[in-house]
Amino acid sequence: MTIRKAILFAAVLFAATPVSIALAEGDAAAGEKAFNKCKACHTAEQGGANRVGPNLHGVVGRKAGTVDGYSYSKPVKEGDVTWTEDNLDKYLTDPKGFIPGNKMAFPGIKSEDERENIIAYLKQNS
What we know:
CATH architecture: Orthogonal Bundle
GO molecular function: electron transfer activity; heme binding; metal ion binding
Oligomer: single chain
Keywords: Electron transport, Heme, Iron, Metal-binding, Signal, Transport
CATH topology: Cytochrome Bc1 Complex, Chain D, domain 2
InterPro entries: Cyt_c-like_dom, Cyt_c-like_dom_sf, Cyt_c_1A/1B
Protein name: Cytochrome c
Pfam family, one: Cytochrom_C
Shape: globular
């Protein structure tokens, strides 16, 4: 195979790849440790209390704004967001940018690895 054919083949494969690439699997154990920065406001255990933020047990796959007993901001409550891994990644990157007007006073997590690990931890608790 010539170099041109190899490049063309790679380009065709890349073009055929779905636009929404799934997140790489994170490390749940590392995510549990990274979740420490979230614990001031959130719990993740089944039956855990709501704090400044809602309990996050079962968050993966759940519609945003639906934890009983938690008072959500209007944009979260009235939005149409389901917490997929992709949406969690976007939210953890930039909470105010992903859901403008929400009340989460956290600037986000810039490290992709750290976000993947936290999502793996949350997924383990979902």
